[in-house]
Design a protein that fits this description.
With 518 residues, this protein is an all-alpha fold. Helices cover 55% and strands 3% of the residues. The protein is built from 19 helices and three strands. The protein has helices at 13-37, 48-56, 82-86, 124-130, 137-162, 168-176, 182-187, 193-210, 216-236, 238-254, 263-281, 288-291, 302-310, 312-316, 336-356, 359-383, 397-408, 421-447, 471-491, and strands spanning 68-70, 76-81, 110-113. Strand 1 and strand 2 form a beta hairpin. Helix 8 (193-210) runs parallel beside helix 17 (397-408) and helix 9 runs antiparallel to helix 10. The longest helix has 27 residues, at 421-447. The protein is globular, with a radius of gyration of 23 Å. It starts with 12 loop residues before the first helix and ends in a 27-residue tail after the last helix.
Length: 518
């Protein structure tokens, strides 16, 4: 006789419920990403004229199929659709101007531009995105943005499935605590930074899981994910290749006692190192260690270096949109009701992480923070620039996500939650409201301009189409989807599984008291 608790398909009601929750989480993640992808016009991410041109004419430009030429200063040029070459310039740095000016530009008429990659970046990212170039510039950009959303969601889903269940909440909190609003804006753009922001944290999580899981299937899965994530980071930006070494060092430190016999982890690490070396050496970004950010000084600016050290928090907190660090071309600001609560939530997460972290985790997080300080101070001081010029918070965002994961990752596979259910609900509600405000301000900036009404959702100067769902539905769908996603990312696991061996063995002198599950 069949068990009444098991369906004809062999799945119990609990198993069906779990499958439904995973499906809902994936749908909510895609919907959230699409809402952000549609919230701004073409050319809205930093240096998009350069990146769009490089996608339309990927390096080497002589083999790209584009018409080429030489500028008056001797720089190589290409001919691309007018919307590609000059779209951002009709509204960039002018937040009062909405994005409707891009519609007055031609998608067929060609313009000459020298804003194209000739070796400054690794080329594979541009060549991959070139596959989605179609007849319509606007449609092509939307497709590319959605492709990045699908890549991010797929990568996150596979990482969660392949990770030890007790680590999933740490992954969720690390993303939620760092990616609003800047990360959301960039991951859903066509900027190469999108792949670096995805790749570096994904590599760290996959390598950490690879050092913990025991079954051959999960070890193979995490090894493949680690190499895939490392590839995304390495082919997008040269600093992505550099960050692979930082992430690898942090993961190695927190797993020192688990490295013996983990030959698959060493193979994955070796491939990642090779990718990192190739990335750093294959682009001119690698020369910044010698030249700074473009205008090297003949003498080290000691006073400037000291000033930059004191001003580092301004750069670090830029990921939350503090004044001076808007999204897009730094012209899309969010109100204090976004960045102040986000800083408070980040502090809550860091405090919770430090309270349960081992000395290895604290040291690894400290090393990452040190890198996030030394690197910008060195490059800016060598160039002769103060913080706020040339070096942007988005360059450090991948490492901050890793740092939060390293701190929040459970040191033991125990049932002790980071937060009580009440605190978790409070944080999720707060993050949902903050996210809604940030998305609303992005939509306002591009649909009517910052001087326009905040809740003008009909008859706006800019939107993708005159018919179909408008800005209001984009905002509403993105808000609801994010709230559902945040709740599931922080509450998938009702009960943590107690493993037989802790990550950081320690002598037990007395029985541990049971801790109620959330």
């Amino acid at each position: 006789m069949q068990d009444s608790s098991t369906s004809e398909t062999g799945r119990t009601p609990v198993a069906r419920r779990v499958l439904v929750l995973w499906a809902v989480a994936v749908f909510a993640a895609v919907l959230t990403g699409v809402a952000w992808a549609l919230a701004s016009p073409i050319g809205s991410s930093p240096d998009d004229d350069y990146h769009m041109t490089s996608i339309w004419c990927p390096p080497p430009i002589k083999d790209s199929g584009c018409r080429t030429g030489v500028a008056a200063n001797g720089a190589p040029t290409v001919w691309v659709p007018q919307q590609v070459a000059v779209a951002p310039h009709c509204y960039a740095f002018h937040p009062e101007i909405p994005g409707n000016c891009t519609g007055t530009l031609s998608g067929d008429q060609l313009s000459q531009t020298e804003r194209v990659d000739t070796g400054a970046y690794p080329g594979p990212y541009y060549r991959f995105m070139h596959m989605f170039v179609g007849k319509s510039v606007m449609a092509s950009v939307v497709v590319m943005r959605i492709v990045n959303v699908v890549i991010a969601v797929t990568l996150g889903l596979l990482l969660a499935l392949a990770a030890p269940p007790v680590r999933r909440k740490a992954m969720g909190w690390a993303v939620l605590g760092t990616c609003i609003p800047l990360g959301m804006f960039l991951i859903t753009s066509i900027n190469p930074s999108a792949w670096t922001i995805m790749g570096i944290p994904a590599f760290a999580v996959a390598m950490d899981s690879l050092c913990r899981v025991e079954t051959r299937t999960l070890r193979w899965a995490n090894g493949a994910l680690a190499v895939t994530a490392a590839t995304l980071a390495a082919v997008s930006r040269a600093d992505g290749g550099l960050y692979l070494f930082v992430a690898l060092g942090a993961v190695g430190l927190i797993n020192l006692h688990r490295l013996r016999g983990r030959y698959d982890a060493f193979v994955a690490a070796g491939l990642a190192v090779a990718l990192g070396v190739w990335s750093v050496l294959s682009s001119r970004q690698a020369t910044m260690a010698d030249t700074g950010l473009g205008r090297p000084k003949t003498q080290w600016a000691q006073d400037l270096a000291f000033t930059n050290i004191l001003d580092l928090p301004n750069l670090w907190l830029g990921i939350y949109g503090i004044p001076g660090w808007g999204m897009g071309w730094l012209d899309t600001a969010v109100p204090a009701t976004v960045w102040i609560p986000l800083i408070i939530i980040a502090g809550v997460l860091i405090r919770a992480g430090l309270a349960q972290a081992t000395w290895q985790q604290r040291t690894a997080a400290g090393v990452i923070l040190l890198v996030c300080g030394v690197m910008p101070v060195y490059l800016l001081s060598k160039t002769g620039d103060a913080i706020g010029i040339n070096y942007q918070p988005r360059y450090l965002l991948p490492l901050f996500i890793v740092m939060f994961y390293v701190l929040l990752r459970p040191a033991r596979d125990s049932a002790t939650p980071l937060f009580t259910p009440k605190t978790t609900r409070t944080l999720v509600i707060a993050l949902t409201i903050i996210h809604a405000i940030a998305l609303l301000y992005v939509l306002r900036r591009y649909t009517v301009g910052v001087n326009g009404p905040l809740f003008s959702f009909s008859g706006t100067p800019w939107w993708w189409t005159k018919s179909g769902p408008g800005p209001f539905w984009d905002w509403l769908a993105g808000t609801i989807a994010f709230g559902v996603l945040a709740a599931l990312m922080t509450g998938f696991q009702r009960r943590a599984t107690v493993a037989s061996a802790p990550d950081n063995p320690a002598p037990v002198t007395e029985p541990e008291k049971a801790v109620p599950a959330p």
